[in-house]
Amino acid sequence: MNDPIHIEGGEVLASLDDRTVTGLLIPYGEKGRTNVGIFEVQAGAVRIPADPSVVTLNLDHDRFQPVGRATRIWEDSAVGIMASFAYASTPEGDAALADARNPKGERRSLSGEFRTGIKNGKATGGVLAAAAQCARGAFPSAMVLAADTPEVEDDEETEETTGDTVAESHTDDTYTDADGNKWTRVYDSETVETDTGTQTTTTITETYTDPAAEAATDQEESEVTASAVPATQRKGAPTITTTERERDHRDVFAALAAIKRNRHDSDALEVLAAFSDITVGGANALPTGGDVLRPNWLGKLYQGIPYEREYIDLATLGTDISLGGKAGYTIHRGTAADPLDRFDGSWAGNKAAIKSGVARTLKKASSLDRFAFGNDIGREFWDLPGGEEVIEEYIALIVEDHLRWSDELALDVIRTVAGDPIAPTEYPGVAGHDFPDALGQMIQGIMAVKRKKADGRKDVPTFVIANEAAYEELLYTPKDLVPEFVKFSASTDGEGNADGLRLVMGDTGVENTPSVIVGSGKAIDFDEIAGGPLKIDALDLPRGGVDKAVHGYLQTFIVRPEAIVHIGIEDA
After folding, report:
1. Residue 317: pLDDT above 80?
2. What is the pLDDT of residue 215?
3. Predicted local distance difference test score (pLDDT) of residue 259
4. What are phi and psi of 52, to 5 degrees?
5. β-strand 56-59 against 128-134: which pairing, if any?
6. Among 148, 169, 196, which residue terminates a domain?
7. I need a surface site. Which of 165, 414, 555, 562 has the fewest CB within 10 A?
8. What are the E-state strand segments in 177-239?
9. Rounded to whole angstroms, how far apart are CA atoms 359 and 335?
10. Residue 378 phi, psi (nearest 5)
């Protein structure tokens, strides 16, 4: 229902001094006349805004005639929603306030506005949005309060209305409030015709029904005062059977409220015990056979952090990949049979003969590794809703496997180039401040890469790979055992900094003892297709399928194997 509901409340009394009105805006438990029909509002059905100032006061539910704004809104669970309004200091606000103060004013009633649904004659919810000052409404019990209206003295004379009574009515109803308390509301209405016109007076009386007193009254009324024995108790008399009154929902709700207040209320427990059990599981399970209890479907669940490559980018990673691969050469002094580490160019001068020699070249070429994986998938996953997501997640797993394949292949190449481990040396130390073996191996490897090789050239190390045993030693190394001029750090993420080099934890080929691999990123080139692996799609029309595959390639080019070393002791 999209139209806002207009519920007309009670008469208002106002004070000119502070320009305020206080009254009952929406009564609870009464059938009211609204712009969309007759229904009643139960306690809690209409929500009160946290900021009362958002509720404006207009004339006759016309939003283009604003005259005030709410200053306070509260709920009385036994009565309804109460509100106080302050009138605007405008000509329209002055006129509306004067109308409210005039006993014969045209508009002396408050009316609430909210949007709600209606089910079984009751409002199903909504938020109070506005209020209106209008003619008297349909709620006879709507009350008006005015904090600034002086109280009537006990000895003040009350003006009596005299005349002929032309109509009378008496009605009552019983309701249970949100706390489970039972109330009786009585309406007495009298219409009197006087010399000045017709006047209707309505009196409302509310009475709280005490369950204990009600039970005592029932017991008193059922006592037998005559001494005669009823015929049903005489020998041979027929047995009379009675049908217990059927319980309705009001009994249940009242009993639940009573149990909430007092868990030992035997009357309430008796009401609840009088009903058949409906359980979630077992013999009287309501869901049995209907599969009506549906799980809260969450879709794909968290499965940890997706694989991230750690080793392939320790070398030089690029996209210079081709079917022909990479190739190049290195040049060396001497011959293969008689290699030289350098040419001796010393010369005696004075036209003496100079020395001469030869050199050789060695060709180097890259290698290529291939990755491919795919499936022929039924096209129903795409033609019908609900299946495409899981296929996409499946393809994502294959792409992740390609990342692992290329990263593990790169680590294997690095291990192969590093060669057999070099035994650790005796590391110098200071008495009482010897550092762990892993830290010494790391420094030894860094110095080995930086040292001049057989060709007289040095390299610049960029990475360190430590196996689990070495990394754990490094992680637990106290800072006062780290050499003074070596910068070192390690974290529980499996990465750190080794004197400016990138430190990662990985498999070095040694498991039982600490071992490290130190190298330069320029020693190896890894190349792959730009943008990651290829995702290939094709239609299998004869069989109603969709072919999906993932293809990847890794090109490996070993440039300078001398720039990678392995320090440790090989497993026995």
Report:
1. yes
2. 53
3. 61
4. -65, -20
5. parallel
6. 148
7. 165
8. 182-194, 197-209
9. 6
10. -60, 135
